[in-house]
Amino acid sequence: MIVVGAGVSGLSCARILHEAGLAVELLEKSRGVGGRCHTRRIEGQPVDMGVTFLHGDDPVFLTALGTYVGHDAFEWPVSLAGDGPTCAPGSLRSSVRRVAIPAGLNAFPKALAEGLTIHRETMAGSISMADGVCRVTSTAGAVFESRKVVLAIPLEQARDLLGTINTSSKDIAGLRALMQMSSSSSCLTVGALYPVSTPDPEFDVMHPPMSSCVALLSHDSSKRTSPAYRALVIQGRTSWSRERLEAPKDLWSRALLEEAGRLLGNWASQPLFVHEHRWRFARIDGAPAFRRPVLTQVGGAMLGVTGEGFSEAGGVAGAFVAGHDLAERLLEGL
Ligand SMILES: Cc1cc2nc3c(=O)[nH]c(=O)nc-3n(C[C@H](O)[C@H](O)[C@H](O)COP(=O)(O)OP(=O)(O)OC[C@H]3O[C@@H](n4cnc5c(N)ncnc54)[C@H](O)[C@@H]3O)c2cc1C
């Protein structure tokens, strides 16, 4: 079995298949695992540059949290500020579990990845499916073969990869057309470190109501044990980010920091260290077109497509549950 993408969805799928005794190979274009569940070490301090916190009420997801990071995960955010719009309003319902991890949220996908075969820095460039065999060719020319392949990558990238399949299959054409109906929002993100002596913002997460550019401020160092720096993560609004995706990062980074200064005090515009990340595909915008992962046959081989866009829950919980669901369906078919 080949799984393209070692984000939470690909890892949850691969984990179940591996534990059922199947040989699974993951192809991951980056050096690390976890995709958008990304923790960056800035000056040695973990900073969550993608997902801000893990949240959900799905029992399958909650059990996995308990199994893989149960001893470390703690309730967060506790203190919320601002009543601006949030991209996941459901995450703040009282029935939903919300957690952070002192070492960074990437600890969750890292734990899922333990013991799995992962070809890192290997980007799937094209797929061919014929005579019951699926061949995935990496952009560097390496070929991986299996009877079954799973795509667990952002929707837009999956649609492009599906477009490389040598087939006149109506299923693939229909799938690509459906994928066209959902799209991902973009998010320009700045992680900033300050001296610990700077004022305590007195919130874990803020959704500023009156900002044209900042959607969310995360007091990242409030997730850490004895942090060396105060850390903020500043996430740009969707439309603001989209308009500046190709702009030099210094331009948008400065604008987000200045806005943080306006919201919290001048100190927040003057960090000691910054790191920027351009999330072209941050998360599904609105309701996804798919409620479940897709499993179909092409040229006698099996193709599965999963990811955050293939579950109603969305976000990390949705990505996890969709990967899990697809793995169970693949096992049923054996
Ligand atoms: C700034 C930001 C904040 C967010 N906040 C939250 C939050 O608070 N709560 C929440 O639940 N969700 C949040 N999300 C959304 C959440 O991160 C995603 O829904 C979830 O991580 C998606 O997981 P995935 O496995 O579907 O995809 P991904 O995490 O994108 O994983 C896909 C993997 O596939 C790899 N890949 C892509 N193309 C190829 C290829 N051709 N070949 C090989 N590998 C490839 C990528 O490198 C990546 O590792 C946030 C996202 C961002 C960007």
Question: Can you offer a commentary on this structure?
Answer:
- The protein is an alpha/beta fold and 334 residues long.
- It has two domains: 2-36 and 110-182 and 287-332, 3-Layer(bba) Sandwich (FAD/NAD(P)-binding domain); 42-57 and 78-88 and 184-284, Polyamine Oxidase, Chain A, domain 2.
- The chain is 26% helix and 29% strand.
- The protein contains eight helices and 20 strands.
- The protein has a six-stranded mixed beta sheet with strand order 9-2-1-13-20-19, sandwiched between helices. Strands 7-15-16-17-14-18 form a six-stranded mixed beta sheet. A three-stranded antiparallel beta sheet has the order 5-8-6.
- A hairpin with a 2-residue loop joins strand 19 (294-298) and strand 20.
- Residues 4-10, 27-30, 35-37, 50-53, 55, 88, 123-124, 152-154, 157, 161, 187, 189, 235, 279, 282-283, 307-308, 315-317, 319 line the site of flavin-adenine dinucleotide.
- The site of flavin-adenine dinucleotide (FAD) has 39 residues, from helix 1, helix 4, strand 14, strand 18 and helix 8.
Can you say what the CATH homologous superfamily of the largest domain is? FAD/NAD(P)-binding domain
Q: In the CATH scheme, what's the topology name of the largest domain?
A: FAD/NAD(P)-binding domain
Using DSSP, what is the number of strands? 20
What can be said about the biggest beta sheet? 6 strands, mixed
How many helices in DSSP terms? 8
Bound molecules: flavin-adenine dinucleotide
Instruction: Name the strands of the widest sheet in spatial order.
Output: 9-2-1-13-20-19
Helix content: 25-40%
Cα shape: globular
What is the annotated CATH architecture of the largest domain? 3-Layer(bba) Sandwich
Strand pairing plus helix content: what structural class? alpha/beta
Number of domains: 2
